[in-house]
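Milestone 3.1: sequence recovery, worked example.
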């Protein structure tokens, strides 16, 4: 029995060169959860931060398409950071995802439900955001929260 592709993989496979709305992308990717617009929007924000896709249009009703720039170019271009937020040096999307995967592996090794462990860690991260006045720290913690949210989505089975 094979595991279905992750939300991330399904979105990347469904994207085209022409911009499409969040709901169009959800339908094309076969994402049928109750809150599919939220799920796809969150995944698209992460993919945009990685430079794999582009936002076309505004924040309120974005459309998405494959990136016309290379990932390396997006990462190197600090004068024009991704529109959904600049990350403090040292904590990028890949590092945040590795940290979250470490939490999942640790929870599994201890016999704890990884989703419960991630929700607990997410709560701590949100408290850090609320208490911090350092913008770089806030951005880093927000990146961790996005990585946690995406991992939680991947751990949750997609309902048809």
């Amino acid at each position: 029995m094979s595991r279905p592709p992750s939300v991330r993989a399904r979105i990347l496979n469904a994207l085209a060169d022409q911009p499409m709305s969040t709901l169009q992308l959800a339908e094309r990717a076969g994402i049928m959860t109750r809150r599919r617009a939220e799920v796809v929007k969150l995944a698209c924000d992460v993919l945009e931060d990685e430079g794999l896709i582009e936002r076309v249009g505004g924040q309120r009703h974005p459309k998405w398409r494959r990136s016309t720039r290379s990932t390396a170019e997006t990462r190197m271009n600090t004068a024009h950071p991704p529109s959904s937020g600049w990350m403090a040096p040292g904590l990028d999307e890949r590092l945040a995802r590795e940290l979250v995967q470490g939490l999942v592996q640790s929870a599994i090794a201890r016999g704890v439900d990884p989703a419960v462990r991630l929700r607990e860690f997410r709560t701590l991260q949100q408290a850090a955001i609320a208490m911090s006045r350092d913008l770089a720290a806030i951005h880093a913690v927000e990146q961790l929260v996005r990585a946690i949210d995406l991992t939680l989505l991947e751990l949750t089975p997609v309902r048809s």
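The CA atoms of residues 108 and 114 lie 6 Å apart. The first strand starts at residue 20 and ends at 21.
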